[in-house]
Amino acid sequence: MSVGTSSAPGAHRARPPAAVGGLGVDPDDLPDGLVVADEYGRVVCFNAAAERITAVPAAEALGQRLEKALPLEDLEGRRWWQLTDPYGGLAIRVRQPERNLLLPGGREVLVAARYVRAEPTGPVQRVVVSLRDTEARRRTERSHAELIATVAHELRSPLTSVKGFTATLLAKWERFTDDQKRLMLETVDADADRVTRLIAELLDISRIDSGRLEVRRQPVDMGAAVGRHIQAYVAAGLPADRFLLRIEQPLPDLWADPDKIDQVLSNLLENAVRHGEGTVTIDITATASPREGEDTGTSVTVSDEGPGIPEESMNRVFTRFWRGSKRGGTGLGLYIVKGIVEAHGGTITVGRAPGAGAEFRFTLPVSAPAYLA
């Protein structure tokens, strides 16, 4: 059934968009596409977002029948307005819930409709249609799919190793020497730690994306925290002169989540050691607070003397799956670092170090509790 009929063709002329609801809001200011058809099924409003989404000029759509101005089909190829029949369908129907429909050419859009009646079962006076581009949703879905694929791939290797070694030990325990057993168990332990880290990263990303990353603030000695990480690297075999720690005194008292700050430092130092070269320099200084209403903050800069980050990659460093090289890693660490720093109310930047390597700098507000103010 066609959309609406007019008893006096041509008597109802197309009108330009009017302010919405008498609130002085121009439909062209709305972020979503807005299409309104009158009681005759002719389009009387076609805003700028609708033009952008459908690639149909408003001047061409205004005055046209709704089914012609907005020729939608469902995913099975059925003509949407004929299928739903807003003007001649059920008199109690007031809306169509949001769903994916197709424009000519196969482009998907999210469409919802409202049927405006003067009385509950009276004739339709207006059909109000909202349109949304699906590209943002598609990007989100692709990102989630990539995350799942990446984590699944990264989990497969350590789990295969754990399964292989444990199965071998159980089946042939008596055939191995104590040293061989120890080596296998150490490998299993290291792979179990890797799985634990991957799961922790996945949980962190979930909390960051949903805005539920909790920060439990305590006094943090940033110099001591960096020192512990340097000592761990030296204990693991790196030369002590690979690191240069410089602390500008006095530093303001810093209140932050010590575990999450350790996570930030671990990622930045590992990035400098793995991808950089030469001396890794860590500067801790007092600086202006990134938070309005506070005077001071703490800034930490981690730089190396390696090849640095190409200029064209600078704006992608803190996105998911970015890798500075092909030497391992999930590409999630710096994304998590940015989420943690911002959850503290801080900022983080990347640039080129004086020695031509990469330079990461994050700044945190002191965030002292009110009773210490």
Structure description:
It contains 9 helices and 12 strands. Strands 2-1-5-4-3 form a 5-stranded antiparallel sheet.
Q: Could you tell me the number of beta strands?
A: 12
Oligomer: single chain
Estimated radius of gyration: 30 Å
Question: Given the structure, what is the number of helices?
Answer: 9
Report the sheet with the most strands, covering strand number, pairing sense and barrel closure.
Answer: 5 strands, antiparallel
N-to-C terminal Cα separation, in Å?
A: 71 Å
Strand share of the residues?
Answer: 15-25%
- Taken from the alpha-carbon principal axes, the silhouette is elongated
Spatial order of strands in the largest sheet: 2-1-5-4-3
Sequence of secondary-structure elements: EEHHHHEEEHHEHEEHEEHEE
Q: Which spans of ≥5 residues are poorly predicted at pLDDT below 50?
A: 1-18
Structural class: alpha+beta
Instruction: Return the average pLDDT rounded to an integer.
Output: 84
Write out key terms for the chains shown:
373 residues, alpha+beta, five-stranded mixed beta sheet
Write a short abstract of this structure.
With 373 residues, the chain is of the alpha+beta class. It is 36% helix and 21% strand.
How are the SSEs placed, and which strands pair?
Elements: E1 33-37, E2 43-46, H1 48-54, H2 58-61, H3 66-69, H4 80-84, E3 95-102, E4 108-117, E5 124-133, H5 135-172, H6 178-210, E6 218-220, H7 222-235, E7 243-247, E8 254-256, H8 258-275, E9 280-288, E10 296-303, H9 333-343, E11 347-352, E12 358-365
Parallel strand pairs: 7-9
Antiparallel strand pairs: 1-2, 1-5, 3-4, 4-5, 6-8, 9-10, 10-12, 11-12
